[in-house]
Amino acid sequence: MTHAPTRPRRVSPKEVLARLGQPEPMIRAKVKDRIDGYFRHFIAHSPFLMMATADAAGRADCSPRGDYPGFVKVLDEHTLALPDRPGNKIADSFRNLAENDGVGLCFLVPGVREVLRVNGSGYVTDEPDVLVRMRTEAKQPELAIVVEVAEAYFHCGRALIRSRLWDPASQALAEGMPSLGEIAAAQFGVDVDPGLLEQVLEDGYRKLY
Amino acid sequence: MQQTVVEHIDRIAEDVVALTLRAAAGELAPWDPGAHIDLSLPNWLTRQYSLCGDPADRNAYRVAVRYDPLSRGGSEYVHRFLRPGRALGVSLPRNHFPLVPAPRYLFLAGGIGITPLLPMLRAVAAAGLPATLLYVGPSMDRMPFAGELRRSHGDRVHLVETKRQGRPDLGALAATLEADALVYCCGPASMLAAAEAAFPAGRLHTERFQPAARTFGPDTAFEAVCARSGDTVAVPADESLLDALAHAGHPLPSGCREGVCGSCEVAVLDGAPEHRDDIGAPEGRMYACVSRALSPRLVLDL
């Protein structure tokens, strides 16, 4: 990859380590190799997570998953299961997992500043006893992702404190955004009334399961 | 919706806890034996539980919840994460399993199916009527209220531990049933099926806590006419009547969304509904979450 002359300076990993120092022993100790009672409690209250995967070449991808709190099932203290709900059918995560089983998860609980991070390896399942636990609105997902947990820990709340993510006043940021229809019309390059496009997209959101 | 506070969580059997839900203010709505409530859990799930306490106590409801290893998040939340002091919303009681007056009764309970029958037995005993309870479970430690029942009702109560004794012969029981007795049965699907095979339909009242496994014809599109507003709502084949109505601006209350709780009941003024619920819709009513239409159009009192 060629760098434009204006590209920001690259700091070597060695220099990064020298500047930040080694993590505190207490920070390392908080990393567990299993889902304990507190992690389980967090997962039971979490309606949202981000999932990172990568392909064989290490090209990364990160996607959101959301449902009712506890939608991720703790099968045992080493194993989680995530339902696959109808989405964009691009299935990047599935393709990546077939090539590279590494998975990183960040769970959020509205109102809680700390983030639960779980890293491990994943694969796709259609096990009926797993899928039946994910039935909602009388619909059951066809597939789920099983995550075998390698490490789990709470990430400190500074990112969420600084971002004011759970402050209701932060919702005013949405007012500064162009409408969904406006963005879609421009990005898809279609000559449609953005209001009409917005209606079509909103109608698509009605069907969640 | 009524507001309550979780007062007690008591383990009453190996995999069952009883919740005492105290009114946050004033009195709770009255109920009769056989009634159930929807519990709005903190994880946004709504679950139905039979009331098993004393109908005369207007300050608290009591329900019992069995842990389901294949939990979708309802019983798991109650067992693992719910704590005393937590505020919980509960619906008004509904009763699809009311006690019909009769000179004598036979109650058949399977496991956690004891819950609606418990206040029935108390009411019948208090009225001085003859009643028998056959209570079936794997073993005593997994049969909530077994000890209490035996203490309060003595030899009216027959406990069967299937691990030791096997399943009871309901056919033999039916052969000795008095001609004027009514039978009330609540339990797992296998027990309900055995009861339906053994007892005459007219004398058997059942309640199931999970939808029966049944197959229906393919889902087809139909129209729902809302008589009060005159709106016609198209219900596509891949959408429920409940969802189509909600999207068209005619939301109904809803709970289980699988035809067992009855919260989405709606009156049908014209057309032929295809009932797919497990409640047994009264004449002229249907449950919009699962039921569809045999006729191209339904006219609803909406």
UniProtKB/TrEMBL annotation, chain A:
Domain Pyridoxamine 5'-phosphate oxidase N-terminal: 39-156
Lineage: Bacteria, Bacillati, Actinomycetota, Actinomycetes, Kitasatosporales
Residues in the signal sequence: none
Family matches, as Gene3D superfamilies: Electron Transport, Fmn-binding Protein, Chain A (2.30.110.10)
Listed InterPro entries: Pyridox_Oxase_FMN-dep (IPR024029), Pyridox_Oxase_N (IPR011576), Split_barrel_FMN-bd (IPR012349)
UniProt organism field: Streptomyces echinoruber
Source domain of life: Bacteria
UniProt-recorded name of the protein: Flavin-nucleotide-binding protein
Record PANTHER family: FAD-BINDING, PUTATIVE (AFU_ORTHOLOGUE AFUA_6G07600)-RELATED
Cited NCBIfam families: PPOX_FMN_DR2398
Family annotation (Pfam families): PNPOx_N
UniProtKB/TrEMBL annotation, chain B:
Protein name: Phthalate 4,5-dioxygenase
Residue span, FAD-binding FR-type domain: 1-100
Highest taxon in the source lineage: Bacteria
GO MF term set: 2 iron, 2 sulfur cluster binding; metal ion binding; oxidoreductase activity
PROSITE patterns: 2FE2S_FER_1, 2FE2S_FER_2, FAD_FR
Annotated CDD domains: fer2 (cd00207), PDR_like (cd06185)
Record field: transmembrane: none
Organism this protein belongs to: Streptomyces echinoruber
Keyword Iron-sulfur: yes
Cofactor(s) the protein requires to work: FAD
Pfam families found in the cross-reference section: Fer2
2Fe-2S ferredoxin-type domain location: 223-302
Keywords from the named record: 2Fe-2S, Flavoprotein, Iron, Iron-sulfur, Metal-binding, Oxidoreductase
